[in-house]
Description:
By secondary structure, the protein is α/β, with parallel strands linked by helices. 29% of the residues lie in helices and 23% in strands. Strands 1, 12, 13, 14, 15, 16, 17 and 18 form an eight-stranded mixed beta sheet that branches. The chain has an eight-stranded parallel beta barrel with strand order 2-3-4-5-6-8-10-11, surrounded by five helices. β10 (224-226), α9 (244-254) and β11 form a beta-alpha-beta unit. The protein is elongated and about 70 Å long. The relative contact order is 0.17.
Amino acid sequence: MAGRDAEELARAHGTPVFVHDHTTIVEQAERLRDAMEAAGLAWRIRFALKAQRDPGLLAALRSRAPFVGMDVCSPGEIAWGSDHGWRPDEISYTGTNVSDRDLRAILEAGVHVNVDLLSQLERYGRAAPGTAVGIRVNPGVGADHTGATETKYAGSRPTKFGILPERLDDAVEITQRHDLTIDTVHYHSGYLYQTGSIPVIEEAGRRVASMVRHLRDADSPVREVNTGGGLGVRFRPADLGLDLDAWAAALARAFAGIDDLIVATEPGEYLAKLTATLLAEVVTVEDRGQDAVFVGLDAGWSGVNEHFVYRIPFHPIVCRAADAAPARSVTVSGHINEGDDLFAEDVPLPEVREGDVIAIPNVGAYNLSMSSEHCLRPPIPVIGIDERT
């Protein structure tokens, strides 16, 4: 990792430990920027802070990719982004079910705000009449890493996110009553989608483009369409990844003909997922009968829970024998006293011994940031590597 031997890092620093390659997040941001520029888009990139908030990684992103802004979804994230170097005008807030208490803190911070429900727009209008605001809309179609055409964010069934197309005039009426200006249309249609889902993403863009035109015709001077995040990366052996040039070209086609429009994206997974690897020690190898071998680690779902929350598959590697042929299928389990604390089931691995170091790659997003104190296990520490050897 970053030119270092994984097992040596584990022996030197102890386990469990996350290893962050800071260069990766910078490279991902540069690839995204270059693809959007090549497609002729007036672009804006923000990093979804909820995916990863490690101070070392944020410092590398801020100093080496200063063109990346910040996407936040709570008052605490606004404070965190500000404390780590982002100005208020570089921070965009998009949240859901915002209380008056939260709204006061958000408005005091001076960041741009997108609201995602008519009731929230009404609440915002009462609190900040005469200001500019963004609205999150629901295009009714989305994509994820499974190839689905509907997600928990957008689909034919109601979700908790976004103003529906048929309610746009209601949104305009609320803004007129409170002298608000709609300057941004935000939508989120995907989760870890890859190249095969680009037609779905383009269709979502076309639907949102129609909404932008409708709002402009209603004298709402929309200047930015925020496409949210969800961009995928290769995290399974069979994955093809996301063709960024094809993705950017699809957005350019979807929003073609709308003058003076910035197309923004706010990825978390795409920038952060590949940056981190978990290193953990094997503390148990036991045949549990019925041809079931359990490999127990000194880490658990309290610190690495993306698989348990989002069902994203993990792919453990035995560092000592990373290129060896599999010997048998095993179940890799954690040290939390719960039956569901499993990292991978029926995964083929070479011979595993107690004391081996297991690496679980591609855990840079939605693991460290969602860690808990379940069973009073402490957060997993981080090794940050600025330069590759």
